[in-house]
TrEMBL record:
Domain of life: Bacteria
CDD domains per UniProt: ACD_LpsHSP_like
Lineage: Bacteria, Bacillati, Bacillota, Erysipelotrichia, Erysipelotrichales
Taxonomic source organism: Holdemanella hominis
Descriptive protein name: Hsp20/alpha crystallin family protein
Domain SHSP intervals: 17-128
Similarity field: Belongs to the small heat shock protein (HSP20) family.
InterPro entries per the UniProt record, alphabetical: A-crystallin/Hsp20_dom, HSP20-like_chaperone, Small_HSP
Length: 128
């Protein structure tokens, strides 16, 4: 397997600066003109995962809450709360370019390696 350095390289440097227990562990692959982002989201329900595209950033937020009502916690090693991860993918992407699926504790996000080219809308200038 060959390693191709690209703009995703910078994203992994931020994990050294923060507590890695709250970072969504991620693998990124490139195949057939697409990037596939695979994230571990074990123990998190699909309804508690949000994917946001804004200003060229793809932000994934996942929340895990363990119901502990009427239960005495003897030991807790798993993180509860909010996980998040952001990737700068460029400003050319639109919501419809990105596909996401959830299976067996993993989140899969698929996006083209290059934003889809779109014809620009014709804008008319008013003559005064």
């Amino acid at each position: 397997m060959r390693y191709y350095p690209n703009y995703f390289d910078d994203f992994f440097n931020d994990t050294k600066k923060q507590d890695t227990s709250t970072v969504l562990r991620t693998d990124i692959y490139e195949k057939d003109g697409y990037y596939q982002i695979c994230m571990e989201v074990c123990g998190i329900q699909k309804e508690n995962i949000q994917i946001e595209l804004k200003d060229g950033y793809l932000k994934i937020t996942a929340t895990r809450n363990i119901n502990k009502e009427d239960t005495r916690v003897l030991r807790q090693e798993r993180f509860t709360g909010t996980y998040s991860r952001s990737f700068y993918i460029g400003e050319g992407y639109k919501q419809e370019d990105i596909k996401a699926s959830f299976d067996n504790g993993e989140l899969f996000i698929l996006l083209p390696t290059k934003p889809v080219k779109r014809e620009e809308e014709t804008r008319y200038i008013n003559i005064q």
